[in-house]
Amino acid sequence: MAQDQRTRTGNRVDTQVVVVGAGPVGLMLAAELRLGGADVVVLEQLPAPTSESRASTLHARTMELFDSRGLLDALGPVPGEVRGHFGGIPLDLTLPGSHPGQWKVPQDRTEALLGAWAGGLGADVRRGHEVTALTVTEDHVDVEAVGPAGPLTVRALCVVGCDGEHSTVRRLAGLDFPGTDATRELIRADVAGIEVPDRRFERLDAGLAIAARRADGVTRIMVHEFGRAAVRRTAPPDFAELVTIWKRVTGEDVSGGTPLWINAFGDVSRQAARYRDGRVLLAGDAAHAQMPIGGQALNLGLQDAANLGWKLAVQVARKGSEGLLDSYHTERHAVGERVLSGIRAQALLLLSGPEVNPLRAVLGELLRSGDTRRHLAATISGLDIRYDVGPGDHPLLGRRLPPSALKTADGWPTSTAELLRGGRGLLLDLSGDDGRTAELAAVAAPWRDRVHSVAATVIDGGPLSDLDAVLVRPDGYVVWAGSDATSPEAALRRWLGLPHDEHPISGGLS
């Protein structure tokens, strides 16, 4: 239902999707749902958006996704750097693409960007609402919450938990979350009024120290003391604890500083057994908990949202093909499993004592090899993903559409990112043949509400220059690469759902 058709009955609100959690992942998902035409209510326990920088790294694939939604102008200039790391060992992240490397954006800025985008698209974001109960029936879910005006029930076709490592949705739904709790931890904070040397993963005799001073004079510090076990916490550590450990590891006194925020995080590694259980879905840290090394946790979650949003919008509109929504679990669980494995390896390299130094030395040598460097850079940047999208042997199938400059048939310059900004699929005709163009447009016509058909030519060469046509999902992944003897109809039906003139499936959430 459109947003102005949302119904209210007493203290109940009816919608199509309820998202729990208004962090970056929940807001990204809400915006993607609205792009796809789905009605969404977001419930967030905190009364106001975060003012803390926390996760501050966006990787190449996330920046490409933001570009494909037209968000980069609103984000404004941000510092980029090709130098990253693997377990604290320097790693050049340069790879082909429009945004190589990593980009430093404080979490509060990312959250503000996504919040404004979601709100502008009509997402109903309700802060100060604590979820207390969840009921799942054959045809809907009821999410009960307590907010500033008292109890509220949101009835929807489904609920998505984007509410973090300790997800209330996951707990109330009884979903398995296997893995291991943290055994080691780092304490981190943004501190004003201190003067310490910048440190990039400096391993000292007693532990690991990281410090980076920002242009505004605030210093981000992180510290781990070798051999010190993780503490089971119900609240953030106090500044005195950080001061003590920093002193033991570095010999420096930072007690005169003022902490803007402080928290602790450890090497937890857990992943939900299922990202979807009927009408209950999980994304971001609710689906996978990991040590936030190099910003991978945030980027993994944002890419979950980009994968799920368009699929769920198609499904709640009762147009989804069989298995479309289950492909969210199939695709993203495998990606998450691989990323978590890499993060566990990095945690061992970072937080182990001197006994790991020989391994670090050997790995440092290997990272100077082109193939090894490119392999690890791709896994960290999110550019290595290849989904199983069905038959075909073209090397682009299942991979992201490479960023490319194009010229439309009527001569206008454009780009692959610009053509994806409406949040619809893209049938990109590169044949240069009027007959083929007409044929492809006719095939795509029954999906015109979900697919943008464009005839263009590639003006910068590259991997698209030898293609006749490609079909691209709304999240930017190629699901059909054609020749003049093939048709995208089967791929359209599988990935974009039923044509507009076919009867919808019952229930809206098969």
UniProtKB/TrEMBL annotation:
<dbReference type="Pfam" id="PF01494">
    <property type="entry name" value="FAD_binding_3"/>
</dbReference>
<keyword id="KW-0285">Flavoprotein</keyword>
<dbReference type="InterPro" id="IPR002938">
    <property type="entry name" value="FAD-bd"/>
</dbReference>
<feature type="domain" description="FAD-binding">
    <location>
        <begin position="14"/>
        <end position="340"/>
    </location>
</feature>
<keyword id="KW-0274">FAD</keyword>
<dbReference type="InterPro" id="IPR050641">
    <property type="entry name" value="RIFMO-like"/>
</dbReference>
<keyword id="KW-0560">Oxidoreductase</keyword>
<keyword id="KW-0503">Monooxygenase</keyword>
<protein>
    <submittedName>
        <fullName>FAD-dependent monooxygenase</fullName>
    </submittedName>
</protein>
<dbReference type="Pfam" id="PF21274">
    <property type="entry name" value="Rng_hyd_C"/>
</dbReference>
<dbReference type="InterPro" id="IPR036188">
    <property type="entry name" value="FAD/NAD-bd_sf"/>
</dbReference>
<dbReference type="GO" id="GO:0004497">
    <property type="term" value="F:monooxygenase activity"/>
</dbReference>
